[in-house]
Amino acid sequence: MLKTNQPHSYALPRPTKTTLARLRVRPTGQKRKSGCPKGRKPTSNRPEGGPTRTVKALPQLYQPEGLPPRRPPKPAEQRAITAMRLAEFVSALGKQQVSQRATHSPKKQ
User: Fold this and answer.
1) Residue 58's CB: how many other CB atoms inside 10 A?
2) Which of 56, 48, 40 is CA-nearest to residue 98?
3) Are 13 and 56 spatial neighbours (Cβ–Cβ below 8 Å)?
4) What is the pTM of this model?
5) Is 95 exposed, middle or buried (0-12, 13-18, 19+ CB in 10 A)?
């Protein structure tokens, strides 16, 4: 959270999710269920298959926690984003990300 009680607009989704979960669990003890429902086989979100990890977009993380939605960047912010060539990164924060999980190879004996 910033001094203006606004969530950080350019935070990485995965560490933000962990931080918000820790802040929710500490005072309330309430954990959210994750993963597939019972009796349903997990499926891959990638065409090539294999284990994947889905990270929600920042707006999807902020909404259930009761935080205000991301505000559009001010003109000066937009100029800085463009000058630093970060427009693609900033737009990716608003989209769900699916990444390949690391697979562990069998240990050699």
Assistant:
1) 23
2) 56
3) yes
4) 0.65
5) middle
Extents of the domains making up the chain: 9-23+46-98
One-letter amino acid for residue 38 of the chain: K
Give all strands (DSSP E) within the chain, no chain letters.
Answer: 52-55, 97-100
Q: How far apart are CA 73 and CA 79, in angstroms?
A: 9
- Output the furthest CA–CA distance in the chain (Å, rounded): 60
- pLDDT single digits (tens) 10-52: 888 888 888 888 888 887 777 777 777 788 777 666 667 677 7
Q: Return the structure tokens found at 2.
A: 């910033």
Q: Phi and psi (nearest 5°) for 91?
A: -70, -30
- For residue 93, which of 44, 65, 60 has the smallest C-alpha distance? 60
SS3 55: strand
